[in-house]
Design a protein that fits this description.
88 residues; mainly alpha; rod-shaped
Length: 88
């Protein structure tokens, strides 16, 4: 067997393996960041407000399901977190 025929066999095997791998690959949706951080997307005015929400076991759903608007300039304050936690 010559070197050219060996290279051709290897190239064909590589193509076949790539096609098989592509056929077996299953598409999965990207992971939802809310699965890892339950407060993803909620703006807090301070780290204390964020940590208090974590301590209370709150999630983004608690903030989305309320009519309470953030009273801080950059997001929910600790007082907002307490008020929303009482609503649930």
């Amino acid at each position: 067997m010559t070197m050219d025929s060996q290279e051709r066999l290897l190239a064909n095997a590589s193509k076949r393996l790539k096609k098989e791998a592509a056929a077996e690959a299953v598409w999965a949706p990207p992971p939802d960041p809310r699965d890892h951080d339950p407060l993803h997307g909620v703006a807090f005015a301070s780290p204390a407000a964020h940590s208090h929400a974590q301590y209370l076991g709150m999630t983004w759903k608690d903030f989305a399901g309320t009519l309470h608007t953030p009273s801080g300039a950059t997001g929910h304050t600790k007082a907002d977190v307490v008020a929303i936690s009482r609503e649930r």
